[in-house]
Amino acid sequence: ASPQAGGAMATTTICISGFPGEALPRELKNFCRFMEGFEGAHVAFSGAFPSNLFVKFSADYLASAAMDLLQGIPFDADNPQQYTLKVEHAKREMEVRPQSPLPASLAGGATMQTRGMRNQGMRPMMAQPCGMGCMGGM
Q: What is the mean pLDDT of the chain?
């Protein structure tokens, strides 16, 4: 990690908030999937609703680039004033573990994306649940 403005250490994990309560965890976990350096995501809940999305990148500069891209943009283009994203470095790094292989009975129903990853010698990644928290209070 490298120093950021204010002397705090930049992490490769970012914390995103500002999602509507009806956002599905699956939607949020896939929110940053196509960004360069994406390694995994974890949705934190406040009661029954998602409150924060933690996203791990392979390098701190890629996490910072994602922060710059997402900071202040509306989550819902149909209602841009109501849900504006707030992005900051997480207090600590998120650990990403390889997902266990699918049981043989389910392997035939795997998505094209999963099959493609296996064919390329890659395995899907799954974030470990954690209580990292965002740098600033909410």
A: 76
